[in-house]
Design a protein that fits this description.
Layout (H helix, E strand, L loop, with lengths): L2 H4 L3 H10 L3 E2 L8 H10 L6 H21 L4 E5 L5 H7 L7 E6 L2 H14 L8 E2 L17 E5 L9 H13 L6 E7 L4 H7 L6 H17 L8 E8 L4 E8 L3 E5 L2 E5 L4 E8 L3 H10 L3 E7 L5 E7 L1
Parallel strand pairs: 1-11, 2-3, 2-5, 3-4, 5-6
Antiparallel strand pairs: 6-13, 7-8, 8-11, 9-10, 12-13
Bound molecules: S-adenosylmethionine.
The site of S-adenosylmethionine (SAM) has 20 residues, from α3.
């Protein structure tokens, strides 16, 4: 999907992004144990409406969503975070065959599994620690029942729209006709609300963004000094996305394996895009990937949408 996904080793993957223009990091580097805990804290910030709106949909319309999913399904969730949305949904589902959280972060997986086991002890849980960017290889033991994939939190917005179409089309190719995806998508809205959501007053999103550098230091031995960067996030209306960066506050040299990264004061590393869509744009995107839209659920403010897609 990105250069980073196509290269062989993590160091070379990171370097291919950092040496490019614009310099970039794959957002998957946000998620070590500390990053997962920080994301969890972001979802509790008053400015971060996304989680509240999606939770509202599941709380008030969850029974309808569950009817659409149907009984005896395997529900696989991509990037469950702490799994709280799955708990809301699974409470409404009848005769679930299995819940399969799939996440790159072992800490997230553990939180999701613990959350489900505590809230719904009878449910069969099969956790998979995987990079979902590479598609979903269904283990043999999960292919006999009908399947529904859940992808909450507007994480799809972190992909370039064309990459999202390709990725969804690859997922679709591995589903049987009639199998489903439940897709949570943040909608275009007042840019001030979007700006605030990624610049919370408590500085939690800033800490989350900066933590990617500490994660790289631990995971692949880079020597970033997170204190020499500041968080930047803003809505780009032409592109329809919130862009997030880490900006160097001084000239500096960083080692990435054998490579040397020279950053000047003011230079930025792009860490994430969060694309926002209109309902029509999202309909076109999912149609291009070969999905039919059965249902769309919205929160009361119409800020967030949940799309019931059929392969
Ligand atoms: C933005 S959070 C969303 C969490 C949760 N779904 C929610 O709605 O609050 C993204 C989640 O996806 C996981 N994740 C991010 N990139 C991933 C990747 N490439 N492969 C697997 N999991 C990934 C993160 O660990 C995290 O749990």
């Amino acid at each position: 999907m990105t250069e980073e996904n196509r290269t062989d080793t993590p160091i070379e993957g990171v370097w291919s992004g950092l040496k490019g223009r614009p310099r970039s990091l794959n957002p998957k580097w946000f998620y070590d144990a500390c990053g997962s805990a920080l994301f969890d804290a972001i979802t509790h910030q008053p400015e971060y409406y996304l989680t509240r709106c999606e939770r509202e949909i599941l709380e008030h319309q969850g029974a309808d969503v569950a009817r659409w999913i149907g009984p005896d399904m395997v529900l696989a969730e991509l990037g469950p975070g702490n799994g709280e949305k799955a708990v809301l949904l699974l409470r409404q589902l009848r005769r679930l065959s299995a819940y399969v959280p799939i996440d790159i972060s072992p800490a997230s997986l553990e939180a999701a599994v613990d959350g489900i086991r505590q809230a719904l002890p009878g449910i069969r849980v099969e956790a998979l620690c995987r990079d979902f960017a590479e598609g979903v290889d269904w283990p043999q033991y999960l292919t006999s029942e009908p399947r529904c994939l859940a992808f909450f939190g507007s994480t799809i917005g972190n992909m370039e729209p064309k990459a999202a179409v390709r990725w969804l089309a690859r997922l679709r190719a591995r589903l049987r006709p009639g199998e489903k995806i439940l897709l949570g998508v943040d909608l275009k809205k007042d840019p001030q609300l979007l700006h605030a959501a990624y610049n919370d007053a408590a500085g939690v999103t800033a800490a989350f963004n900066l933590n990617a550098l500490s994660h790289l230091n631990h995971a692949i031995g880079t020597d970033f000094n997170p204190d020499w960067f500041i968080h930047q996030a803003g809505y780009n209306p032409d592109q329809g996305r919130v862009e997030m960066y880490l900006q160097a506050t001084c000239d500096q040299v960083v080692h990435v394996g054998q490579h040397v990264l020279r950053l000047e004061r003011g230079e930025r590393i792009h860490t994430e895009n969060s694309y926002k869509y209109t309902l029509e744009e999202l309909l076109r995107l999912t149609e291009s990937a070969g999905f039919a839209t059965d249902r769309v659920w919205l929160d009361r403010q119409r800020w967030f949408s949940l799309h019931g897609l059929r392969a």
